[in-house]
Design brief:
With about 100 residues, the protein is mainly beta. It has one helix and seven strands, in the order E-E-H-E-E-E-E-E. The protein is globular. The protein starts with 13 loop residues before the first strand and ends in a 10-residue tail after the last strand.
Length: about 100
């Protein structure tokens, strides 16, 4: 079930990405965070120390709560990373100490 708001026909091209091994739909111009939230996935990663769930907090790339791995590159902010056709997204279970807050 999509939670996207607005006219679907006014969106950009529709394509698929992989999220933790599952194929999901995305539209051109959407960020990884937008795609996950539209699919109803509120938990984007877990903290390394206490395994606490994190989601999109600031939505502008300042808080680092929405870090994911995209195409093998870790610690990318889902709210700032554009979805691309065929990209592979993995939720992170921990992050490097330089970015842990």
């Amino acid at each position: 079930m999509s939670r996207r708001i607005g006219d679907v026909e006014a969106r950009g091209a529709k394509f698929q990405i992989m999220v933790d091994g599952e194929s999901v739909w995305a539209y051109a111009g959407e960020t990884i965070a937008t795609v996950l939230l539209a699919c109803g996935d509120l938990i984007i990663r877990h903290t390394s120390k206490q395994n606490k769930p994190r989601s999109v907090f600031c939505g502008i790339g300042l808080c680092f709560d929405c870090l994911v791995t995209v195409d093998g590159v870790p610690n990318l902010r889902a709210c700032m990373t554009q979805a691309r056709p065929g990209c592979v997204v993995t939720r992170q279970r921990s992050i490097s100490r330089e970015t842990e807050q």
